[in-house]
Write a structure and sequence with these properties.
Length: 644
């Protein structure tokens, strides 16, 4: 029976191959996006493994080194400065270094080595205790373009006593690490982003596996009427669907691996990625392919119940597919789950915030999916009562199978939900103020009354024009007249107080600025991924519905119905459910964002722009899907009409 199933697929002609192509396209795109989401989590894990040595667990006994990590700046770029004092030269070095550095040694990342060659010595190199000793290997870097300097210091060096926003840690071993607060925050945000993408992807996987279900049900019902057993019919259906879905899933994995170099250019936490970080292991890839095949198998088995029970009803099309109002109980349960999640966010550990919030997002996603077919049913009943043949045809098609009719608009509905969730957050992020980028702050560990005069003297001797405005008693403020000499002034002022980093207010808030930019960029990446899913689902489902309903379409065409009426009916059966489902999804998305930011923020220009782009993209997607399947509709009706 497996051989028969594959032979029927192979010899089924252009329509069979077109149907298999629709299924394969949807599954391949969904798998590629799923692998991309898993690759993001894999990349964060790999980053943490390579950089965890910078946040070691404080030694309880005798330390082998003492460490301090700070952020310097040059040419407008952040430089991770690691001051390391070796207390036991025989101890294992941190990743990326062949040994623990001796006092005066300077180890830099390849990107920082290039920057040192590009800038004058008095703009950067003079800040370090000596010439470059060697390069830090990839094993100790977060990303290829990261700027890192590991400086060997004496235990009593001023770098360990200078003021700053980081502590000096005694280190027992560099493999005993704890996740930094930044790493936990990015992991939480990434988990939420993955949740926003994974649910539409999972929906596309299931919908793709159920595409052309009517054609498959017809063929299986025929086999059942000819005497095939339940086991044989099940084998035929499962073999065909599983084979196509598994091959497409493998193609999706290969597609994600091929696109990894492009994905690695998308910056996060200040820069790009190592390409290998965004490629999940082969074990994960195999599990994804097997999982997609299993989902396709379950979808095929689920569609067999009415074929096995009533094959004659399938052939004669006397078994309408109903949706029940009990789905509203599921919607109510989803709202309860979100309320519980919202309460739990106040007390849950920071490391679990992402998982808890993702659960709330998935619950409201589920509410959109549950209520969607009910909206289709109501829209169908409304259209049936309207005047005009196109409205009646559209209404009857919606009422015939509300769940199948919801699939072409499901992706767009979920995309609108994502836009509703992200619009107020993006607007709030865009409204954050920018810190001062021109005034340098020199803060010594001990107040030096003559430091201001010394700074004026040194700046004048170096030919650097600067204004020293009055400031706090424990700081010297310097505002260079020319932005091009800021790095020279920073280097010169730092030499006046050894161990001190000279920063602007923007430098001190650089991590927050990077986070804001990452959130804004991540919102657009998630939206792009969601709309890619929506466009694929809408296009494939629209074409599949033409193939599934070709018998009805041919009868209507033979009865004298103009093709324009059929095209108008297809547009109405998509537009009516989409408008209502989109409004509901937008409301649920705003409700999902309400615990974090005022919903009124969506009225800000950036929020309105985001929603406007989503609406335009959704309209264009529906129009493109309808236009793309119009030739297929004409071909199906014309071929069968001429033969009739």
């Amino acid at each position: 029976m497996i051989g028969l199933s594959l032979r029927l697929l192979r010899l089924g002609g252009r329509r069979a191959w077109a149907a298999a192509g629709l299924v394969g396209a949807g599954v391949a795109v969904a798998t590629a996006l799923l692998m991309t989401a898993l690759g993001a989590l894999h990349g964060l894990d790999q980053r943490e493994l390579r950089t965890g040595w910078r946040t070691p667990v404080a030694a309880q006994g005798d330390p082998v080194a003492q460490l301090r990590v700070r952020t310097d700046h040059a040419a407008g770029l952040p430089i991770v400065q690691v001051d390391l004092a070796t207390l036991d030269a025989a101890a294992a070095p941190p990743p990326g270094l062949p040994r623990l550095p001796a006092p005066g040694e300077v180890w830099v990342s390849p990107a920082l080595a290039d920057l040192l060659h590009a800038l004058p010595a008095d703009a950067l190199a003079d800040r370090y205790p000596g010439p470059v000793t060697g390069e830090v290997g990839d094993a100790g870097l977060q990303r290829p373009d990261e700027l890192v300097a590991v400086l060997g210091r004496a235990p009593d060096d001023p770098a360990f006593t200078a003021p700053g926003d980081s502590d000096v840690l005694p280190v027992a071993a560099f493999d005993r690490v704890e996740a930094s607060s930044d790493a936990l925050l990015y992991r939480s945000l990434t988990i939420v982003a993955v949740a926003l993408v994974v649910f539409p992807v999972a929906g596309l996987l299931g919908a793709s596996a159920r595409l052309t279900a009517t054609r498959r049900a017809d063929r299986l019902a025929t086999l059942r009427l000819l005497g095939a057993s339940t086991r044989q019919v099940t084998t035929v259906a499962v073999a065909e669907t599983t084979a196509v879905a598994t091959a497409a899933a493998a193609a999706g994995v290969v597609l994600e691996w091929a696109c990894a170099p492009l994905l690695a250019r998308i910056p996060l936490a200040g820069g790009g990625w190592f390409v290998a970080d965004l490629r999940p292991s082969w074990t994960v890839a195999v599990l994804v392919v097997l999982g997609v095949g299993a989902l396709a198998t379950l979808s095929a088995i689920g569609g067999l119940r009415r074929v096995v029970v009533s094959p004659l009803g399938v052939v004669r099309r006397q078994v309408p597919q109903r949706v029940r109002w009990i789905r509203l109980l599921g919607v109510a349960a989803a709202l309860v789950v979100f309320a519980i999640v919202n309460a739990a966010l106040q007390t849950v550990d920071v490391s679990a915030v992402g998982l808890v919030l993702a659960a709330g997002v998935l619950a409201l996603f589920g509410a959109c999916v549950l209520i969607g077919p009910l909206v289709v049913r109501v829209a169908g009943a409304w259209l049936v009562r309207r005047d005009g043949a196109a409205s009646v045809i559209a209404g009857r098609r919606l009422l015939d199978d509300p769940r199948a009719a919801f699939r072409p608009v499901a992706g767009l509905t979920l995309a609108v939900f994502v836009a509703g969730f992200l619009a107020p957050l993006t607007a709030a992020v865009s409204g954050l103020s920018t810190e001062d980028t021109t005034t340098l702050h020199l803060r010594p560990a001990v107040v030096a009354p003559d430091l201001r005069a010394r700074a004026e003297q040194e700046l004048g001797a170096a030919g650097i024009a600067a204004f020293l405005p009055p400031g706090p008693a424990d700081e010297v403020l310097v505002r260079p007249g020319d932005p091009a000499v800021v790095d020279r002034a920073r280097t010169l002022l730092g030499a006046l107080v050894p161990g001190t980093l000279v920063q602007t207010e923007a430098d001190r808030a650089a991590d927050q600025a990077v986070l804001v930019e990452d959130m804004r960029r991540g919102a657009f990446v998630v939206l792009i991924g969601t709309f890619l899913v929506a466009a694929t689902a809408t296009g494939t489902a629209a074409a599949a519905r033409v193939l599934d309903h070709r018998h009805t379409l041919r009868l209507l065409r033979l009865a004298g119905t103009p093709v324009q009426v059929l095209e108008s009916a297809r547009a109405r059966e998509t537009a009516a459910p989409l408008l209502v489902n989109g409004a509901i999804a937008l409301g649920l998305g705003l409700f999902c964002a309400s615990p974090f930011v005022a919903v009124s923020a969506v009225a800000a220009p950036s929020g309105l722009v985001l929603l406007g782009v989503v609406l335009l993209a959704g309209t264009a997607t529906v129009a493109a899907a309808t236009a793309a399947s119009r030739p297929l509709l004409r071909a199906v009706t014309a071929a069968d009409g001429s033969r009739g």
